[in-house]
Amino acid sequence: MSDSCPSEARACVDCLRRSWLLAALGPYIEKVATGSVGRRSPELLRLGNEDLVEVVAPNDGKRLVGAVEAREEDWFAERLAGAGCWAICRHDDRYPYGLADATDAPWALIGRGDITLLEDLEPEAAVTVVGSRRATGYGRQVARDLSRELGAAGMIVVSGLAFGIDACAHRGALDAGGPTIAVLGCGPDTSYPAAHRSLWGRIAETGAVISELPPGATPWRWSFPARNRVMAALAGMTVVVEAAARSGSLITADLAAELGRDLGAVPGPVTSRASAGPNDLLAGGACVVRDAQDVLDAMLGAGVRPSARGGPPLDPEQAAVLAAVEAGATTADVVATDTGVTAAQAATALTRLELLGYVSASSVGTFTRTTLAFVA
Predict the structure, then answer these.
(1) What CATH number is given to the structural domain containing 363?
(2) Taking residues 147-164, what's their average pLDDT?
(3) What is the rounded distance in angstroms from the CA atom of residue 105 to the CA atom of residue 119?
(4) Is residue 376 part of a domain?
(5) What average pLDDT does the structure give for the chain?
């Protein structure tokens, strides 16, 4: 196995072959991991190619390895370029620092979007936010608000693009105009779930979508806990917003704890099944997370904040409406009176401000200012 990459390359051919080998071994790993999917796949991925093949595909392994080994370097470059993807591997000095702590780190990361988000990414600059796919309204709001505040504070939000908490975390970071990284259990050129195609596109445009699997790779049950280990390693803290007593989010939390990362949890009602996981983590000593400042205090020290990032630009009317809300106006009618616009214009501006993350709306139609900074 090569010990280094050419200086102009971001992923050497041996590491790229590993990614394509994992895709070929997908159904074989699935069979071996069945019954203990949560912990088994990260353990398997610690193995080198020969040992992995021997464990999961003793009969077909040599054929699969041979097929991948037969591919020339140009073949991989063409496949990446054709899918609009880039790759960075463990032999490159720009490989994320956090992954160096993990004995089962991917040999290569393949992605779309801004590769500079990964190059030299330090755990202290990122927070992983995860939780239930069947999130409650409370959990969704907390995840989005928390991630928006973290993004506005200059932190990179990492999550898995799944339904529920993951999607809200990504959207919150995007609300703040900040970058977010989605770690997938399939090829990075594919939105999974398909319903998040638009969100996937927004992340790829302003942040990064990454995977250790190659373009076109199929998602498997084992590949989701496998991607969880990447999410845990990239960030200095993992925050669980909502999760059942046994869930993939708690696997991510366990993996983060094993790496010595900070672990946080959002408290919820003791009667709520959705909050059973975070409440158990809190009972075990996890940091209480009520807002972004709790996360920043735990990661960087009490009262310390990285450089804040301003939110998206506003037109003059939107800026005036935002100023009215900051001054205490809570309804469209009051905003209209204070700013001199019509009630319809005020309502439209408030809706836009909510979408941009500057205000939040209650169930009774009142608006309050969020923490997202506005730079005029």
Answers:
(1) 1.10.10.10
(2) 94
(3) 15
(4) no
(5) 90
- DSSP lists the bridge partners of residue 359 as 369
Given the DSSP bridges, would you call strands 208-211 and 359-361 parallel, antiparallel or unpaired? unpaired
Q: How confident is the model at residue 7 (pLDDT cuts 50, 70, 90)?
A: very low
Closest Cα to residue 355, out of 306, 307, 320, 322?
A: 322
Contacts of 258 (CB under 8 A, 6+ apart): none
- Both 9 and 95 in one domain: the answer is yes
With contact defined as beta carbons under 8 Å apart, do 150 and 124 qualify? no
Residue 210 contacts residue 11 (beta carbons within 8 Å): no
Token readout for 347 is 């309502």
User: Among 241, 240, 293, 292, which residue's Cα sits nearest to residue 263?
Assistant: 240
Counted domains in the chain: 2
Residue 112 forms beta bridges with which residues?
209
Domain identity same for 357 and 237: no
Token pair of 25, please? 């071994």
Instruction: Report how far apart, in Å, the C-alpha atoms of 274 and of each of 140, 144, 242 are.
Output: 11, 17, 5
For the chain, give the number of residues: 376
Helices (H) and strands (E) in the chain, counts: 16, 11
Mean pLDDT of 335-358: 91
